[in-house]
């Protein structure tokens, strides 16, 4: 086994000398004596066998060899810092890993905003993200596969908080046969046309939700696929407003003029897998999800004014 000649602390000292411009400044920044800093830098150069620093005036600058070696050492120092941060978080009870399960109806920009905020505080906690549909959320809780769940229901035996309401709008391509009727539509009109619906990702007790009166149905596994099919004129569907707003604005999709039921509101709830055992990372993730949901709801309300 190869014995290391240098230490991370020596490379940290070299990095400080370069960043702060000299031995005295580095000593002050590292809370060390100047003689200690000078000795460690000299010892490092002796051990690697090439000059790393050159003095120009009163400034310490890296040689070409020093630049190349410190660039690699900086990555090691960064990794070591992350390792220490993770150890400190674990010592304070921060979870090493979280399992987040979200319903496909949760707006992606909202989720990304929350995860960005989460990473800034708990970046050393690994995250497993799973997207589900309908009863897939409850199955994840029942199978103890979720630390935090965002789903359309709060399962029996759990406590959950309302996170967000998502509006699903009945839409079709402007040239669709339903729009060519040129009048308000009823359930009988819809029954004659192809409906695109989303498949429940659960397998134990899959359920159907929404209007499913069409004799012809195409079932897909993602909302994005459903939106793309409807935008191509292959059927009609109820789709989340946040997912199709751009197509609505551009006229690529038109809302169906239904006599009733044009908009269906779906509530999303945030539930802990085990609230009593939830650690600081789980609680922080729940907090930033709630904040992002409030911001999303306010932005959506302003856009509709």
Task: Give the topology, please.
Blueprint lengths: L7 H13 L2 H8 L3 H15 L4 E4 L2 E4 L1 H28 L5 E7 L4 H15 L3 E7 L3 H7 L5 E4 L8 E13 L4 H4 L6 H5 L2 E5 L17 E5 L2 H9 L5 E4 H10 L3 E2 L7 E10 L7 H25 L1
Parallel strand pairs: 3-4, 3-5, 7-8
Antiparallel strand pairs: 1-2, 5-11, 6-9, 6-10, 6-11
Helix pairs in contact: 1-2, 1-3, 1-4, 2-3, 5-11
Short overview:
The chain is α/β, with parallel strands linked by helices and 305 residues long. It has helices at 8-20, 23-30, 34-48, 64-91, 108-122, 136-142, 177-180, 187-191, 223-231, 241-250, 280-304; strands at residues 53-56, 59-62, 97-103, 126-132, 148-151, 160-172, 194-198, 216-220, 237-240, 254-255, 263-272.
Descriptive overview:
There is one protein chain. With 305 residues, the protein is α/β, with parallel strands linked by helices. The protein folds into two domains: 8-91, Arc Repressor Mutant, subunit A, CATH 1.10.10.10; 96-305, D-Maltodextrin-Binding Protein, domain 2. Helix content is 46%, strand content 21%. It is built from eleven helices and eleven strands. It has helices spanning 8-20, 23-30, 34-48, 64-91, 108-122, 136-142, 177-180, 187-191, 223-231, 241-250, 280-304, and strands at residues 53-56, 59-62, 97-103, 126-132, 148-151, 160-172, 194-198, 216-220, 237-240, 254-255, 263-272. Strands 3, 4, 5, 6, 9, 10 and 11 form a seven-stranded mixed sheet that branches. Strands 1-2 form a two-stranded antiparallel ribbon. Strand 1 and strand 2 form a beta hairpin. Helix 1 crosses helix 2 (23-30), helix 1 packs across helix 4 (64-91) and helix 2 packs across helix 3 (34-48). It is elongated, with a radius of gyration of 29 Å. The model has no long low-confidence stretch (mean pLDDT 86).
């Amino acid at each position: 086994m190869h014995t290391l000649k240098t230490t991370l602390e020596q490379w940290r000292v070299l990095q400080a000398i370069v960043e702060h411009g000299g031995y005295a400044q580095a000593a002050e920044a590292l809370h060390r004596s100047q003689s200690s800093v000078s000795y460690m830098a000299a010892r490092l150069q002796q051990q690697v066998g090439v000059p790393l620093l050159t003095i120009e005036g009163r400034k310490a600058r890296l040689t070409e060899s020093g630049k190349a070696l410190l660039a690699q050492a900086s990555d090691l120092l960064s990794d070591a810092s992350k390792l220490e941060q993770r150890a400190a978080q674990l010592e304070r009870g921060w979870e090493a890993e979280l399992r987040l399960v979200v319903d496909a109806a949760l707006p992606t920009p909202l989720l990304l905003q929350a995860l960005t905020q989460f990473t800034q505080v708990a970046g050393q906690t690994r995250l497993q993200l799973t997207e589900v549909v309908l009863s897939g959320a409850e199955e994840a809780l029942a199978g103890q596969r979720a630390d935090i769940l965002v789903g359309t229901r709060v399962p029996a035996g759990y406590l959950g908080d309302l996170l967000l309401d998502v509006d699903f709008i009945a839409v079709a391509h402007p040239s669709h046969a339903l729009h060519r009727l040129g009048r308000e539509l009823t359930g009988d009109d819809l029954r004659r046309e192809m409906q695109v619906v989303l498949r429940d990702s659960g397998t134990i007790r899959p359920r159907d939700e929404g209007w499913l009166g069409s004799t012809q149905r195409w079932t897909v596994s993602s909302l994005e696929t459903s939106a793309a099919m409807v935008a191509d004129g292959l059927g009609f569907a109820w789709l989340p407003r946040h997912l199709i707003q751009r197509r609505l604005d551009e006229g690529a999709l038109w809302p169906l003029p239904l006599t009733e039921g044009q908009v269906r509101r779906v509530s999303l709830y945030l539930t802990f897998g085990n609230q009593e055992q939830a650690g600081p990372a789980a609680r922080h993730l729940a907090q930033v999800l709630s904040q992002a949901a409030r911001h999303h709801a306010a932005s959506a309300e302003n856009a509709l004014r």
